[in-house]
Amino acid sequence: MATQKPVLISGAGIASLLLAQALRGANIPFRIFERDASFVFRAQGYRLRLSAEGLDAIESVLDPPLFEKFWSKCGKTGGAGFSAFNAVTGEQTEHLVPEGLASRGGKIVGIARGDMRQVFAEGCEDNIEWSKNVTGYELTGDGVRAIFSDGTKSEEGSLLVGGEGIYSKVARQLSGGKLKVYDTGARGIHGQAPSTAFKGLGEGVFRLRDDTRPDGAIFIITNIRPGDKDDPNVEFGWTMGGQPGVIRAPNDDYSIVGKEAAKIAKDLTKNWHPRFKPLFDQMDEANAAFWKITCSTPSGVPEWPNEPRVTVIGDAVHSMTPAGGIGANTAVRDSALLGRLLREAGGYAPGVTAEYEKEMRVYGSEAVHQSYSTAVGQFGVKIDEATSETV
Length: 391
Hints:
Layout: E1 7-10, H1 14-25, E2 30-33, E3 47-50, H2 52-61, H3 64-73, E4 75-77, E5 82-86, E6 92-96, E7 108-112, H4 113-120, E8 128-129, E9 134-139, E10 144-148, E11 159-162, H5 169-175, E12 181-194, E13 204-210, E14 218-224, E15 235-242, H6 259-268, H7 278-281, E16 289-296, E17 310-312, H8 315-318, H9 327-345, H10 352-379
Parallel strand pairs: 1-2, 1-11, 2-8, 5-13, 11-17
Antiparallel strand pairs: 3-7, 4-7, 5-6, 9-10, 12-15, 12-16, 13-14, 14-15
Helix pairs in contact: 1-4, 1-9, 2-9, 3-4, 9-10
Cofactor: FAD
Protein name: FAD-binding domain-containing protein
InterPro entries: FAD-bd (IPR002938), FAD/NAD-bd_sf (IPR036188)
């Protein structure tokens, strides 16, 4: 085992780190290459809702003590379940009991992306190489090397797994350009505010929607957890989404964070009901950030000739809109599946990536289609594969 070539992993997101945990548990060597300089280099994004399938996948990988630590960081929301409101009038428009979205014990389970990434990284830190931007790969006689943006190459690995998100160069090279991510035109803003700003809502999962704007609808989604809602030192996050053209960053620069993003969020919600205004009036302006709503090919994950020593996971192979909250849950299923196949084979073996891709295409395609179909109604998006822009 000491002479076994490592599995090379591009990107240090949640799917890559969970795969690393699967390899660590099976004593399979691995190296992770991350373009950022550290975990705190970029904002970690919004809070994730975990499905039963997502939780099962995570639990199948993490050892019991680490899963317990992960579980302790998750928020478990029951209370009013899911409620939708007219953001301007304050009128409730929809309600689902907790079981409609529950994943365990009748509770809706969620966790901040940053917290999830931190737990998944435990014990893997020494295997991460920072400031390494993978731009492609080359096959060797009996292995593979990652190629970095500065022209250097990695050590030889037994397998390369592209997990570096929607801009994955590994995915593009592997699929011959068949794996595409489309820009839906819809945009959003992430924000957060002290728990005191959410007092008017109470416990539960909430969607606030404004259909009064002439240029299109906007809405936010937030999850208010019982254990933290009375602690003034805790901040809750919210995610705002808008139909194409409604939310625009200055000069279309969606890397802007902070006060400029916060100001736009406040301007968009200035006519909202007083019950909801504290979410924006009291927001932590420094943490406001824009985001683009993208989606992989709605008809499903395409097929490409299998390359035994290279494959892809997570957003690199099936990017989804936030509608339905299934993107991250599908990504961790990839990690659990590929990790299990590698463990059973004792490391890289011919046929592993083909078996993984065959099974992943089924649930991945279903998830992308479900996410896109929901987003058509929620965001007013439409992807025409012949004319839509790719990212």
